[in-house]
Amino acid sequence: MDVRALRYFVEVVRQQSFTRAAEQLYVTQPTISKMLRQLEEELDCTLLIREGRKLHLTDTGQAVYQRGLTILQEFKQLETEIGDINELKTGELRLGIPPMVGMQIVGSISAFRQRYPGIELKISEFGGLTVQQAVLSGSLDLALTALPVAEDLTLNTLPLMSHPLCVLVPRTEQWLNRSSIALAELAEHQILIFNEEFSLNRQLMHAFQRSGFTPKIAVRSGQWDFLAAMVQAGMGVAVLPEPICQRLDKQSLLWLPLESDMEWKLGLIWREGSYLSRSAQAWIHCCREFWPGEAPRLSV
């Protein structure tokens, strides 16, 4: 059913005149007559009976009129909602963030909320590899993750920031005079590491393999504060991004630069070739303002 035909029919009934309805709708009277004939043919019934200058609704016409009022009101509401979404007055953004990343993007989240208070942010905290799969499956619109992602994944990436990696050790005499730690030296120590759903785990395991040794993994965890507590308890050493280390207790822990070309690189990912909602485009635009880069720009 053409909503225009329904709108024309309702207006004719309201005005009790084809001529006045045409004037209200800014169309010609023949246009209205044609659309009403098509509506009656589509419904296979007569909706209006003319008696001189008066118009009378048939029983079917009365039903269509009453339902039409409701349908047109709902359609108007739909148009308003779509307009609000397009103008970013309302909407939803499903964003994936690994636990380590949260503090790095507080500023951009705050700016986004101030600019678009009507958009609901649904944040899911998972490891980097898990959020990548969630974006690919469509359960998340966008995600922050460690870069680079695997080449076989159909993901667009927007690099945002990078930080050096540090080796977290207990503040004991053994480490106080050290200024850095070589990657190969980690072979001598028990390693506390993020579990397999984190990109940093994969990055470190590849680095250990290239250095020719198998690490002595003592603990795997998805929580950086738990790994830090285990280091403090003397269970081993951990490799963490520098911003995470800077939030830890300097009285009991020490972090030394890792002698390696590895970095903790963070970026935004979204599914290649998929539809991006207006709220998702707005988030990308907001991230670009915080971390200008060379990735393709999206106008919002």
TrEMBL record:
Domain HTH lysR-type as annotated: residue spans: 1-58
GO annotation, cellular component aspect: cytosol
Molecular functions (GO terms): DNA binding; DNA-binding transcription factor activity
UniProt cross-references to CDD domains, sorted A to Z: PBP2_CidR
A Pfam family per the record: HTH_1
UniProt keyword terms in alphabetical order: DNA-binding, Transcription, Transcription regulation
Origin superkingdom: Bacteria
PANTHER family linked to this entry: HTH-TYPE TRANSCRIPTIONAL REGULATOR YBHD, NITROGEN ASSIMILATION TRANSCRIPTIONAL ACTIVATOR-RELATED
Family of this protein: Belongs to the LysR transcriptional regulatory family.
Record-given protein name: Transcriptional regulator
